[in-house]
Design a protein that fits this description.
disordered N terminus; single chain; two-stranded antiparallel sheet; Rossmann fold; alpha/beta; 7 helices
Amino acid sequence: MDSVRSPDWPVAPLGGLAGNSAATRYGTPAGAGPATDRVPPPASAPTRATASVPVPGALPRPRPADAPPVPVKILIAGGFGVGKTTTVGAISEIAPLTTEAEMTSAGIGIDDPGARSTKTTTTVAMDFGCVTIDRSLKLYLFGTPGQARFGFMWDDLARGALGALVVVDSSRLDDCYPAIDYFEQSGLPFVVGVNAFDGRLALDLESIRWALAVGDHVPLVQFDARDRLSVRDALLVVLDRALERATRDRGA
């Protein structure tokens, strides 16, 4: 799971989002263009209902080149101040929608982002961004609020989601327990992504897995919420986990 990779994406140019588009990453596919060698159907062509019956041994119909990508909803969850908003903003190909509010003295002793954090704002509703994986798949990312008092929103945000990335700060593992409990109880496939603050972890991954008491079937990966390619690799693990679950459920 941890070794999942996709073709490297070019870094988007500063001051613009054009370099983060699918056309820039992949260019024009070889041989693309309107087909000119198709033979028109005879006048006695079968009706649509008859023609749509699959023929044994026939190859699946290719996806139209102009078909829109399939939308997939992914949750970015975790405790307060672990890097959820940063994760969404690092990879979103649009200007991310955030609901950040300034932290006030009323939150002292309640909202603790940790000694290493310089955080002065907090998410009071959700974060939203999107990224095109390829021509057939587009991820819509929903970042959840981290404080317990906003927990009533999680059910609505999780509705229709394919999977979740639970962001963890290795120096404050206690803050991620509610998120892990939520997804274990809901049955939604999830991946634990340990955010490497300042490029390093307070504990190694095996110690973190033991402390979180998550089974070996739950992928545990290290990533940097500030780095676009690192976030991409973590999201690909979420997709792989969700696909594995869907395949298993279909075969059951």
